[in-house]
Predict the 3D structure of the following.
Amino acid sequence: MADYFIGNKEYFPKIGKIKYEGPKSDNPLSFKYYDPEKKVGKKKMKDHLRFAVAYWHSFCADGTDPFGSATIPHPWNEGKNPIEKAENKMDAAFEFFTKLGAEYYAFHDRDIAPEGDTPAESEANLKLLVKKAKKLQKATGVKLLWGTANVFTNPRFMNGAATNPEFGVVALAATQVKAAIDATIELGGQGYTFWGGREGYMSLLNTDIKKEKDHLAKFLTISRDYARKNGFKGAFYIEPKPMEPTKHQYDFDVETVIGFLRHYGLDKDFRVNIEANHAELANHDFAHELETAAVSGFFGSVDANRGEPRNGWDTDQFPNNYYEAALAMLSIFKAGGFTTGGLNFDSKLRRNSIDPADLFLAHIGGMDTFAVGLEIAQRIIDDGKIPSFVKSRYKSFNSGDGAKFEKGELTLDALAALGTKYGKTGHTSGKQEYLENVLNQYLLGL
Ligand code: XUL
Ligand code: CO
């Protein structure tokens, strides 16, 4: 066990390296489906899935909810001062990543380092912890999927960060974003995420939407320029979410974000980081958001979690739905798979999951779910029934007048004349139930 911790203290002493033991294993602390080295199609499972642990949920969130205080013990919070606590937390985090076998992690500036009294002090704290993270990354081989800045928790951001009506707050947000970009570059991060938590509005009575969106675009443009100038080669992600905490967020869903990026000329550098629970809040399927990004070339990364459909807020539960994961992986395949991105568990334990093992069990369940999803998606492609059905559904555009229409060679007059000639057509079944049965057959035949 000692092989898997590198700090001064072992934080999960009863838990060793999590191994693949197969679906028949009775050991809860083992993978039933996720077999990192197993080849699926052309790549190993671990290289398809690129799992990341979200620092904020796993090491900062303590079960607090609007009605009650912390329930989940965090032994790493013992320390003489905020810096020592942050160092302990980081030791615990890397012990966890390594024992779990997640090759990536993601953080906000404030997750890894405490805020100081001034921007300069905050930046110095961050630099200190980045130095430690660099050492731990080197010692463990764990890599940074993406970094970001928390510009939504501090009360100063109550009216927004980049979209704040007060210029001073926009400038203060810049101190954090600049330092978080520096940290991401220093740690070899493969992406940098912007989740516009408070970039939206609560009431139109006090809001100038045009100004706020212009400011957001300006802020993103200069952040990109700064990062590129300083050698950042990774992807920038916008993470869509329709609401919560604001009533309406500007990055509502994937289609909205794509329109925004194109309008402001940011479409070359920015991609989307799609979160399952956010898709649900926008009244979309997770796969709808992935597919929308895939077909437009905007697919970047994924925040893997699930919501509770009957609650209607961002419950950030660990994913456990094989059906949804299979459809998600199929859309990810259509996007060509991950390049800079990965599956980041933006998921948190329930308030009453307070055993140290629960954090492992939750991630094991999420990883197994996507391993199954991956196998099913590969099966859909290899078997070919579903993709070839979709292809044949559009075959009337492959030649003749249909092909002419696609090439823009038919005027509306000409098209209407053809319609008159065709007369009665269009009575072809969409076969949805058949296709759903095929998908179920793959799932049941695991
Ligand atoms: C909030 C959310 C964030 C982002 C990063 O809903 O998803 O944790 O992923 O700021
Ligand atoms: Co997220």
